[in-house]
Fold:
Amino acid sequence: MSLRSIIKALISKTGYPYAIEPALARTARSQGDIPPEFYLEKLRGSDVFDISIPQLGAAYKNLEFTAVEYTRFLIARIQSVNVYLECVIEINPDALQIAEELDIERLGGKVRGPLHGVPVLVKDNIATKDKMQTTGGSWALLGCVVPRDAHVVSLLRNAGAIILGHANMSEWASTRSRYYSDGYSPRGGQSRNPFNLEQSPFGSSGGSAVSVSANIVPLSIGTETDGSIAGPSQSNSVVGIKPTPGLTSRSGVIPCSENFDTVGPFGRSVIDATLGLDAIVGADATDARSTGADRIKHGSYADFISDKTVLKGARFGLPIKGCWEFVPEDQKKVAAKILDGIRAAGAEIIDVDYPCAEERIPGRGIWDWEHGEPSKSEYTVVKVDAYNSLNAYFSELMNTGIRTVEDVVKFNTDNKGTEGAAPGDHPAFRTGHDVLIEIIKDRGEKTLTYNEALKHIRYQTRANGIDSALQHVTENGESVTLDALILCDRRLVGQQLAAQAGYPTITFPIGADKDGMPLGLTLQQTAWQEGKLIKWASAIEDLRNDIVGGRPLPTYKNKTAKNVPIRYDYT
Structure:
């Protein structure tokens, strides 16, 4: 007897604890002219293509289908399309059992919140204490046992989310090679962009973003040190929230940097990503940054969701030097439709500059965390942080011989055919594991150069960067605080300043370029101002829906592509 039959039988005897209500409005979107392998069928007669989390909750409430049925439906989706996209590294064998328990809870009148029964993928560097592996995409950690769920996973489970599996990622969150194939991991293979499978999904959270864009899950969780949420959001037509480090705990996450790491959600809409953020925000005694005195939490971030009417009277800054000035003309045309719409809605968009642009943004505005001499370089800080943080993480693992970064290098060398230790060993890792070698050389020593670099980065990107750009001085000398900064740049140079500053961003889709590749806007603010970003992003998203319709949808061009390294031709 199916769970659905059991539920119906129980309802007939006991009565359903909720009134059946009209389904939350769902306007069916055409999936476009896509290869049939990727077409999403209906579930028990219900159109679930691009379904939002609130709509999913309403469907559960009205018994259109159960969490078990939806979870089984998504597992079948993974089995069907992951052979092409390679964005899921592992499926939770207990997912259906968890879904059944949550269905029974709902039937009994207990709904934990908006994520009750919502399947979620977490990036493979986020620990789950269950039957799955957490490996950072590397064979080196296969078989290890983590001591506990990552704090964000515990919060997701408490919120009623179903941890459906682990998403593929760039191995070691891109902290292993100077030149590598974005989205590739030896364990998970090459994640691919659902708009063109020959092209990069961006990294290192590419698998998390692809899985949401391709309707594999409605919500996923990724991590960012520098660009790993903003970049995949931009490249895959999804919404990504990169929180202030410490708003979400990093405990139980395979680390890169104690100063820059953060955990954030991907969704197909601002509301979905915001509900994901709400679920994973929480202070954690094992992550000191999440309990700091400066930490600000604004209640439910869903309370900040707005519509286009709030744009009247708003003031935004558009950074020019090193940013907008180098955006290709066809991308500017796409962005201009939205920027002009924002102005027409009554907002002002003011040209601004980061005072630090000349020093912090290299050349013609290309992302580069090695930019600058060692005493001014983000790379100096990350190398030291990675050595200490990785060794601390490894020390808690059970059933593994990996205890140090040196052990990882030895494993790679012993398994060079899959892990690519030296240049030429593997096509995904053109320079081998050169970054790991450099991390070991510094041995985690917080030298004078390290401290100078961190101090310099913080000052330049905060007081002499984002803070200053947000304080616009008018022609008559009046200082005006802007509501947010707007970036439209796939090269992530402005977004990199936010990563180095430890400031939040939200990235959301606005259209597609001449080749059909998605384009997004990123909004930027100072620390702990996620609420403001959600307010403005949701308002602009509402406006975008009027101007160009919903988000650009995947086209799955070059569906059989298997190229490694992946191409990245759409900067």
Remarks:
- The longest strand covers residues 505-512.
